């Protein structure tokens, strides 16, 4: 039985399938709106029966219906409203980037918290957000994780997890002083940058760290050698930065930067300091590179970019900027509730990707929202296949 509450729910069917008859319950003057009220009486095998059965009651912005069903026939009464000429319903397609979403470092960090909760029981403390995504944080909070910015006040013997972004050495010392059990969930690729910083500092280099000074990852790396590290965020800053010995310069990079952004800064630094040294392998992580590459590969194929991610996520913001650089609108949204229908006016193809800390559930919710707003085709655009995995810390194995 189809509930009468569907009167206020849009459904989709072809006006041409209607038979004669009207229904006062759906009179536009009564419920608001405009259009024509039509009856449907369809049986199995008749054109449109399966489609109506599938979508009756599903969201579709310009149709409404009430009705009932029997074993052999489907009866419905619908209000069919005229569509505007700019309406993209039935034409809009969605291109889903792959790879997208969780990287190996994020998966590892989340599993560290979940395993710690299973092993030690709640509460388990986490210094800073384990990853920059409020959906993930709230899910872990519901399981018993407690997120803190400072270690002061934590009871001796408590377990405290350091986030995927890493921390300065002094934070480890503070945890030891407070008699806390520290579990390091730092992404191994961030740990690599910490190791490089210590090595360059020991060898007497001034370290130019390309990144954003207020990002938690950069704060942690600077903490390895604060007297020898200078953060350089832009090409303009690279053109004016002063060092004591230009022949003794090492350059490191925040792992979540835009490749283009970091490259522009590095170009200026190489011109000014020809003898600068860099790590043997790239600091920008594989996941950042791959997700940005997937967006670049779709340049010219989309009319609008939606990046699913948290506003605090550096790599998600870089993806939005990259999408916008292709001269089409680009929006960063946490989930479907932030998607505005007005963005889709006149849009035929929407590109969707997500940051490395975004759960896939958020992406699929956005896709479902797009379907409810008229998307009829969803395609995955395959890119680099990712197989990277990281071992868990001994404390939670």
Order of helices and strands: HEHEEEHEHEEHEHEHEHEHHEHEEHE
Which percent band covers the strand fraction? 15-25%
How large is the radius of gyration? 27 Å
- End-to-end C-alpha gap: 52 Å
Put the structure in a nutshell:
It is built from twelve helices and 15 strands. It is flat, with a radius of gyration of 27 Å.
Structural account:
The chain is an alpha/beta fold. 31% of the residues lie in helices and 20% in strands. It has helices at residues 28-31, 49-55, 104-120, 134-143, 169-177, 188-202, 216-222, 235-240, 259-272, 286-297, 314-324, 360-372; strands at 36-42, 63-69, 74-80, 93-98, 124-127, 145-148, 159-162, 181-184, 206-210, 229-232, 249-253, 304-308, 330-333, 349-354, 377-382. The strands form 4 sheets. The chain has a 5-stranded parallel beta sheet, sandwiched between helices. Strands 6-5-7-8 form a 4-stranded parallel beta sheet, sandwiched between helices. Strand 2 (63-69) and strand 3 form a beta hairpin. Helix 6 (188-202) packs parallel to helix 7 and helix 10 packs parallel to helix 11. Mean pLDDT is 85; it is low at 1-28, 30-34, 57-66 and 79-89.
